[in-house]
Design brief:
Number of helices: 5
CATH topology: Rossmann fold
CATH architecture: 3-Layer(aba) Sandwich
Keywords: Hydrolase, Protein phosphatase
Helix content: 40-55%
Strand order of the largest sheet: 2-1-3-4
Family: Belongs to the low molecular weight phosphotyrosine protein phosphatase family.
Strand content: 5-15%
Enzyme class: hydrolase
Structural class: alpha/beta
GO molecular function: protein tyrosine phosphatase activity
Oligomer: single chain
Organism: Marinobacter litoralis
CATH class: Alpha Beta
Largest sheet: 4 strands, parallel
Shape: globular
Length: 159
Protein backbone atom coordinates (compact mmCIF):
# COMPACT_ATOMS: atom_id res chain seq x y z
CA UNK A 1 0.00 0.00 0.00
CA UNK A 2 1.03 3.54 -0.68
CA UNK A 3 2.18 5.69 2.25
CA UNK A 4 0.61 8.81 0.78
CA UNK A 5 -2.15 9.76 -1.63
CA UNK A 6 -2.44 12.60 -4.11
CA UNK A 7 -5.91 14.00 -4.88
CA UNK A 8 -6.78 16.38 -7.73
CA UNK A 9 -10.17 18.10 -8.00
CA UNK A 10 -11.20 19.33 -11.46
CA UNK A 11 -13.93 21.67 -12.70
CA UNK A 12 -14.22 23.98 -15.69
CA UNK A 13 -12.46 27.20 -14.68
CA UNK A 14 -10.95 26.29 -11.29
CA UNK A 15 -12.56 29.27 -9.57
CA UNK A 16 -15.71 27.84 -7.94
CA UNK A 17 -16.19 24.09 -7.49
CA UNK A 18 -12.71 22.58 -7.58
CA UNK A 19 -11.07 25.16 -5.29
CA UNK A 20 -14.02 24.74 -2.92
CA UNK A 21 -13.44 20.98 -2.96
CA UNK A 22 -9.72 21.51 -2.38
CA UNK A 23 -10.46 23.74 0.63
CA UNK A 24 -13.13 21.51 2.16
CA UNK A 25 -11.07 18.36 1.72
CA UNK A 26 -7.92 20.04 3.03
CA UNK A 27 -9.82 21.07 6.18
CA UNK A 28 -11.06 17.48 6.71
CA UNK A 29 -7.57 16.06 6.16
CA UNK A 30 -6.10 18.60 8.59
CA UNK A 31 -8.68 17.80 11.27
CA UNK A 32 -7.79 14.11 10.95
CA UNK A 33 -4.06 14.82 11.27
CA UNK A 34 -3.37 13.35 7.83
CA UNK A 35 -1.66 16.31 6.13
CA UNK A 36 1.55 14.31 5.77
CA UNK A 37 -0.34 11.49 4.00
CA UNK A 38 -2.64 13.37 1.60
CA UNK A 39 -1.58 15.98 -0.98
CA UNK A 40 -4.46 18.02 -2.43
CA UNK A 41 -4.67 20.27 -5.49
CA UNK A 42 -7.27 21.56 -7.93
CA UNK A 43 -7.40 22.70 -11.54
CA UNK A 44 -9.74 23.45 -14.41
CA UNK A 45 -10.17 22.06 -17.88
CA UNK A 46 -10.15 25.57 -19.38
CA UNK A 47 -7.43 28.20 -19.09
CA UNK A 48 -9.65 31.31 -18.81
CA UNK A 49 -8.84 32.03 -15.16
CA UNK A 50 -5.25 30.76 -14.89
CA UNK A 51 -3.44 32.56 -12.08
CA UNK A 52 -6.60 34.10 -10.65
CA UNK A 53 -8.08 33.63 -7.19
CA UNK A 54 -11.31 31.71 -6.68
CA UNK A 55 -14.58 33.54 -7.30
CA UNK A 56 -15.31 35.94 -4.42
CA UNK A 57 -18.62 34.17 -3.77
CA UNK A 58 -16.79 30.86 -3.34
CA UNK A 59 -14.33 32.49 -0.96
CA UNK A 60 -17.16 34.04 1.06
CA UNK A 61 -19.27 30.87 1.24
CA UNK A 62 -16.28 28.76 2.27
CA UNK A 63 -15.21 31.43 4.76
CA UNK A 64 -18.58 31.17 6.51
CA UNK A 65 -17.63 27.53 7.16
CA UNK A 66 -14.16 28.38 8.42
CA UNK A 67 -12.43 27.42 5.18
CA UNK A 68 -9.87 29.79 3.65
CA UNK A 69 -9.55 29.68 -0.15
CA UNK A 70 -7.77 33.02 -0.51
CA UNK A 71 -4.33 31.53 -1.21
CA UNK A 72 -5.48 29.33 -4.10
CA UNK A 73 -4.76 30.23 -7.72
CA UNK A 74 -6.45 28.73 -10.78
CA UNK A 75 -4.50 26.52 -13.13
CA UNK A 76 -5.34 24.33 -16.12
CA UNK A 77 -5.03 20.56 -16.01
CA UNK A 78 -1.91 19.14 -17.65
CA UNK A 79 -1.50 15.64 -19.08
CA UNK A 80 1.17 14.79 -16.47
CA UNK A 81 -1.41 15.43 -13.72
CA UNK A 82 -2.88 12.05 -14.61
CA UNK A 83 0.48 10.45 -13.81
CA UNK A 84 1.03 12.50 -10.65
CA UNK A 85 -2.33 12.07 -8.88
CA UNK A 86 -3.90 8.91 -7.47
CA UNK A 87 -7.41 10.41 -7.65
CA UNK A 88 -8.58 12.72 -10.42
CA UNK A 89 -12.05 13.79 -9.32
CA UNK A 90 -14.19 15.86 -11.65
CA UNK A 91 -17.29 17.86 -10.84
CA UNK A 92 -19.58 17.06 -13.79
CA UNK A 93 -19.96 14.91 -16.89
CA UNK A 94 -18.63 17.62 -19.19
CA UNK A 95 -15.43 17.88 -17.13
CA UNK A 96 -15.27 14.08 -17.11
CA UNK A 97 -15.45 13.94 -20.91
CA UNK A 98 -12.71 16.57 -21.25
CA UNK A 99 -10.37 14.86 -18.79
CA UNK A 100 -11.10 11.42 -20.26
CA UNK A 101 -9.92 12.75 -23.63
CA UNK A 102 -6.58 13.61 -22.03
CA UNK A 103 -6.54 10.23 -20.24
CA UNK A 104 -7.19 8.27 -23.47
CA UNK A 105 -4.29 10.04 -25.17
CA UNK A 106 -1.82 9.88 -22.27
CA UNK A 107 -2.88 7.19 -19.79
CA UNK A 108 -2.42 7.57 -16.06
CA UNK A 109 -5.12 7.75 -13.43
CA UNK A 110 -8.60 7.39 -14.85
CA UNK A 111 -10.79 10.36 -13.90
CA UNK A 112 -14.07 9.82 -12.08
CA UNK A 113 -17.00 11.88 -10.86
CA UNK A 114 -16.30 13.26 -7.38
CA UNK A 115 -19.84 12.70 -6.11
CA UNK A 116 -19.36 8.93 -6.50
CA UNK A 117 -17.93 9.21 -2.98
CA UNK A 118 -21.06 10.90 -1.61
CA UNK A 119 -24.43 9.57 -0.52
CA UNK A 120 -26.49 12.10 -2.48
CA UNK A 121 -28.64 11.11 -5.44
CA UNK A 122 -26.91 13.87 -7.35
CA UNK A 123 -24.06 12.73 -9.57
CA UNK A 124 -22.73 16.14 -10.61
CA UNK A 125 -21.68 19.18 -8.61
CA UNK A 126 -23.64 21.99 -10.30
CA UNK A 127 -21.73 25.05 -11.42
CA UNK A 128 -22.88 27.95 -9.21
CA UNK A 129 -21.18 30.65 -11.28
CA UNK A 130 -24.30 32.09 -12.92
CA UNK A 131 -26.62 31.58 -9.95
CA UNK A 132 -27.17 33.17 -6.58
CA UNK A 133 -25.49 32.66 -3.22
CA UNK A 134 -27.62 29.60 -2.41
CA UNK A 135 -25.92 27.74 -5.26
CA UNK A 136 -22.54 28.16 -3.57
CA UNK A 137 -23.96 26.80 -0.30
CA UNK A 138 -25.44 23.79 -2.09
CA UNK A 139 -22.10 23.11 -3.79
CA UNK A 140 -20.35 23.18 -0.40
CA UNK A 141 -22.93 20.78 1.07
CA UNK A 142 -22.37 18.29 -1.76
CA UNK A 143 -18.61 18.68 -1.54
CA UNK A 144 -18.60 18.20 2.24
CA UNK A 145 -20.52 14.94 2.02
CA UNK A 146 -18.44 13.54 -0.84
CA UNK A 147 -15.22 14.64 0.90
CA UNK A 148 -16.16 12.64 3.98
CA UNK A 149 -16.75 9.57 1.81
CA UNK A 150 -13.49 10.13 -0.03
CA UNK A 151 -11.54 10.45 3.20
CA UNK A 152 -13.05 7.20 4.48
CA UNK A 153 -12.02 5.53 1.21
CA UNK A 154 -8.49 6.89 1.46
CA UNK A 155 -8.17 5.78 5.09
CA UNK A 156 -8.99 2.26 3.93
CA UNK A 157 -6.41 2.50 1.19
CA UNK A 158 -3.69 3.69 3.59
CA UNK A 159 -4.52 1.11 6.28
Amino acid sequence: MSESVRVLFVCLGNICRSPSAEGVFRQLVNKQGMTDKVFIDSCGTADWHTGKSPDSRSIEAAGRRGIDLSDLKARQIQPNDLDTFDYVLVMDRSNLADVRDIWRQNGGTEPQLFLEFGRSDEVEVPDPYYGGDQGFEHVLDLIQEASEGLLDHIRGRLA
